[in-house]
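Annotated sample (chain length 163).
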Amino acid sequence: MNDIDPEDAEAFFDGGVACSGKGEYDKAIADYTRAIEIDPIFVDAYINRGFAYGQKGELDKAIADFNKALEIDPRYAEAYYNRGSAYHHKGEFDKAIADYTKAIEINSMVVDAHSSRGNTYREKGELDKALQDFETFLQLAPNHPLAAQVREEINQLKEQLRR
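Output written by the structure step:
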C-alpha cells in the first residue's frame, strides 16, 4: 500500500480486503492492523483481521480480535458467529454453540450460524438439535449455495435417528 494516505484507515481496510481475497493473509493482517492503529474502534477491521488469523490457523489471535470487536459493539452478530467458528475449529464445541446461539438471538438471519451450530451439534452427537438447526437453515435460505449439502445432511441425520 504505497500510494495511499498513511492516515486513511478505510484505505488500509480496503487493501486488507483485497489481500484476503487473494489469500494473502499476512499482507491482509498488516493492512487491517494499520487500519486499527489509525482507528482503534474500527470494528470491521478487527472482524476481518480475526478472519485472516483464522484462515492461517492462528485461532487464539482470531478469538482475541473477535473479543475486541464485541467489546466495541456487543450486538455484532457476525462477531459472535466468527468467534463461534474459531471455537469450533479449536474443538471447544460448547463455546462455539454459545456464540452461534448469541448470533442467532441478535439476528436470526445470520443463516450460516444455524448450519454451523448444526454441524457442531452433530459433532457432539446431539443429532436432534443438529437436525433442527439444519431444517431452520433451509427454511431461511432454501437457495443458499450450501442448501444441497444441508439437505443431504438432513437425510443422513434422519436415517441415523431412525436406527
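Annotation: The chain has a mean pLDDT of 96.
Annotation: Residues 78-163 form a domain with the Serine Threonine Protein Phosphatase 5, Tetratricopeptide repeat fold (CATH 1.25.40.10).
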